[in-house]
């Protein structure tokens, strides 16, 4: 059974919107943290998203994979860049990360179906 990453992030976004109404200050704080952490600095945004994806793979988080792959596609990540980051995630996380790395590649194909290997 294949996971549908656009549906996963759509559903998770709706659930997070509901959660934000109950804990708005926490949500604002997390949003500020995310914006600060992913802003261009010594590392560019794409590199930071690749790190976030690798951590999402290692944590076995489907929604994290979906959100970060979508952000990477928007940042014009290449399949080769994605695969190298997934290789590091597999190295650090072992067999379970291998399974989620395969899912991350499927997410990439869903968000960027016409993406080239360049």
From TrEMBL:
<dbReference type="InterPro" id="IPR003779">
    <property type="entry name" value="CMD-like"/>
</dbReference>
<dbReference type="Pfam" id="PF02627">
    <property type="entry name" value="CMD"/>
</dbReference>
<feature type="domain" description="Carboxymuconolactone decarboxylase-like">
    <location>
        <begin position="24"/>
        <end position="106"/>
    </location>
</feature>
<dbReference type="InterPro" id="IPR004675">
    <property type="entry name" value="AhpD_core"/>
</dbReference>
<dbReference type="GO" id="GO:0051920">
    <property type="term" value="F:peroxiredoxin activity"/>
</dbReference>
<protein>
    <submittedName>
        <fullName>Carboxymuconolactone decarboxylase family protein</fullName>
    </submittedName>
</protein>
<dbReference type="InterPro" id="IPR029032">
    <property type="entry name" value="AhpD-like"/>
</dbReference>
